[in-house]
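Team,

Forwarding the record for the chain on the shared tracking sheet. I've put the sequence and predicted structure together so nobody has to dig through attachments.
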Amino acid sequence: MVSNPHEHPSSVGAIEDPLAGIDFGELERSLRRPRTLMDFLLSSVVAGVTMLSLIPLFSVLLMLLWHGGRKLSIAVFTQLPPSALEQGGGFGNAIIGTLIIVALAVVISVPVGLLTAIYLAQNEHSRLSGSVRFSAKVLTGFPSILAGVFAYGAIVLTTGGYSAVAAAIALSILMLPTIILTSEDAIRMVPNRMKDAAIGMGATRTQTVWMVLLPTAIPGILTGIMLAVARAAGETAPLLFTALFSNYWLWSNGRADLMQPTASLAVLVYNFAGQPFKNQVELAWAAALVLVLLVLATNLAGQSLSSRQTHHP
């Protein structure tokens, strides 16, 4: 017997309710149940510990805002550091010096780090790649003062003076491992189907790297660069051995003289914080605030790029 396709479904058979037999009262969240209570307690503990871990960060920020914020003005960004008994002054040369040193370090470390990361990603199982990767991981815990001592012996003693170039080389040593490891991970996260498609269309290995892998991995690469810059900008010990300090502008005859002692925010804070003069101490607080804000902004930029890569691979 063939059933009529136009027959009403109720005449064929009642459709079973998929939610029949479910007691929705049992699904309600109740702290009276042991598992729910334990989950709530552990979640509360984790949230409390997280808030405790943020106390030092916000304490430092509030302290810097309280002590350093009152000293901020246009003058501190445009004037030179004052002498011992001089009032006023600023740290404009230290801001410029910090930006120049970090920029030079980026110019040195990014090409080397990026090319190394490309080699590691394309030859991940070779013996040389394993050695380079292990060395990069060791360098992540390299004491910054040793990088300054190395640059002092290799650059300062060779050139006969402290300079921004020597400081940039010291900072580039500290930046390299972060750039190498994060860039390698970003390149290896590119889906294999994209590489296979490029090769299938006749692209060479070099064209695949420069036209497919790097453009796709650029958010992760920029994240590593931002994090490396944030670390380098806050270093003090390497600069004491390489750039030292200067109370004057870096410009000479209309151009930047990179082969002379160069001021930086980190060293200015180090020098002025121990002075017995109130004006210098206040400038140290203001310089510390500016330095922390620069590092914080760089870190936030790196985290933003990282989150973009996570949500939009």
